[in-house]
Specification:
Length: about 475
């Protein structure tokens, strides 16, 4: 959309505010709202100034001036404001006009530009399956003498005996019993449908929605694939709309990977492929799962670099509460067709040549999508460039249910890192593939590792309530 068209839209829709947004390193959105009457063509050229020192992981106070430059292709109307507001996503620049190398959205765009310089293809397509929980209540507290959390849901298995005014209406969802029963068991049909309606108004193409496996209100909405940066933009819209619709219904939505003990967590399976113009490059009829050698090498790059990659695709300490055996978690670094116990699954049901893709199942939605998609692409491209063959390295194909194998049979299968610190160690040792084409900078990698190490340390030094059960009476 041209600047002129944006300005015309502001008048046509009687827009009162233009909301300029960007995403920080941790994946949190920030915004500045400007009166629409103050927005003109120069605004889209000169941008909106802000204090970078107040953004975690950005700039020091001595060099804090930064500029948001809006991307007019990202504009959509905010469904949650009383005053008509237009949202636009921005890239971050220095006052001198250079892209800021710690800006996640700029990193995503550089990854797409790098793909084109390699001559491998013209576009990479991504489609995340981002799961979430919708709770009725959340409470948590951390202090010197107290540490606790509690969530609740009308659907939850622990509420079968709860008495409320009017009585308990039953139809609770058991552990691992949520994959997709109809109402009245599924109480969230209308909430998800409203989320989808607003996503479609915001420009997303919705494919389906449904309840997910876990008890207590786990859901999933699938939207159609797009190019790397556009898909990351769409995922930021997705999360914003889900959390705000939940709030309108008096509920709360979370993308936390493992908010409940003893049931499935929330992942973000990421489908991905490369095209050259209109031609799909991952398809070869008659080959294993109809995958081309290019696709096999892309998988090889993902699996070879997976320990380091997971520091970006699963960047929270809570991520590793999900990445444990027994809860359909993709902890095994192998690939296979149609096999959900593998870290990389090749979908084979109703797949056309253009729909041929690989699915990396390990990530979760605590990942910053701009960084995660860019890092996955860079790992896959490294696999293509260096012809990394996952078959020769023992990464499959593995067409058995890995969860049911004996320890002896699983001995040769590499697993994901067990903690965030282990993943960060791997990223520290293996990140040269991210530096290619100056997509990620060394400064960004060093800064990112320091930020995430601080998270890991903050959790590690705190006393866990379960330690009282284990040790208090010794």
């Amino acid at each position: 959309m041209s600047v002129e068209n944006v300005l015309s839209l502001i008048k046509e829709k009687n827009i009162e505010w233009v909301d300029f947004r960007f995403t920080d390193i941790g994946g949190i959105s920030h915004h500045i709202s400007v009166p629409a009457v103050e927005v003109d063509a120069d605004t889209f050229v000169n941008g909106v100034a802000f204090d970078g020192s107040s953004i975690h992981g950005f700039k020091g106070i001595e060099e804090s001036d930064m500029v948001m430059i809006p991307d007019t292709e990202t504009i959509y109307e905010d469904a949650f404001t009383a005053h008509p507001t237009l949202i636009v996503y921005c890239n971050i620049y220095t006052p001198g006009g250079d892209r800021y190398d710690r800006d996640p959205r700029s990193i995503a765009e550089r990854a797409e530009e790098y793909l084109q310089t390699t001559g491998i293809g013209t576009a990479a397509y991504f489609a995340p399956e981002s799961e979430f929980f919708i709770f009725d209540n959340v409470q948590f507290e951390n202090s010197m003498n107290k540490s606790s959390f509690e969530v609740d849901s009308e659907e939850a298995v622990w509420n079968t005996g709860r008495k409320e005014e009017g009585g308990n209406l039953g139809f609770k969802i058991g552990v691992k019993g949520g994959y997709f029963p109809v109402a009245p068991v599924d109480t969230q049909q209308d909430i998800r449908s409203e989320m989808c309606r607003l996503m479609m108004e915001a420009g997303l193409r919705i494919e389906r929605h449904h309840h997910e496996v876990a008890t207590a209100g786990q859901g999933e909405i699938n939207f159609r694939f797009d190019t790397l940066t556009k898909t990351a933009d769409n995922l930021m819209k997705y999360k914003y709309i889900i959390q705000n619709v939940a709030r309108q219904y008096g509920k709360v939505a979370t993308f936390m990977p493992k908010p409940l003990f003893g049931d499935n967590g929330s992942g973000m399976h990421v489908h991905q492929s490369i095209f050259n113009g209109d031609s799909p490059l991952f398809y070869e009829k008659g080959a294993y799962a109809n995958l081309s050698e290019m696709a096999i090498h892309y998988v090889g790059g993902i699996l070879h670099h997976a320990p380091a990659l997971i520091a970006i695709t699963n960047p929270s300490t809570n991520s590793f509460k999900r990445l444990v055996p027994g809860y359909e978690a993709p902890v095994n670094l192998v690939f296979a067709k149609g096999n959900r116990s593998a870290a990389v699954r090749i979908p084979i049901a109703a797949v056309t040549p253009k729909g041929c893709r690989i699915e990396f199942r390990t990530p979760d939605s605590t990942a910053n999508p701009y960084l995660a998609f860019a890092a996955m692409l860079m790992a896959g491209l490294d696999g293509i460039k260096n012809k990394i063959d996952p078959r020769a390295l023992g990464y499959g194909p593995f067409d058995k249910n890995i969860y049911e194998l004996s320890d002896e049979e699983k001995a040769g299968i590499r697993s994901v890192p067990g903690t965030l610190d282990e993943a960060l160690d791997a990223l520290e040792a293996d990140h040269e593939f991210l530096l290619q084409g100056e997509v990620f900078s060394q400064d960004f990698i060093d800064n990112y590792i320091n930020l995430k190490r601080a998270d890991a340390k903050a959790v590690a030094i705190r006393i866990h309530p379960y330690e009282y059960e284990l040790y208090f009476n010794l």
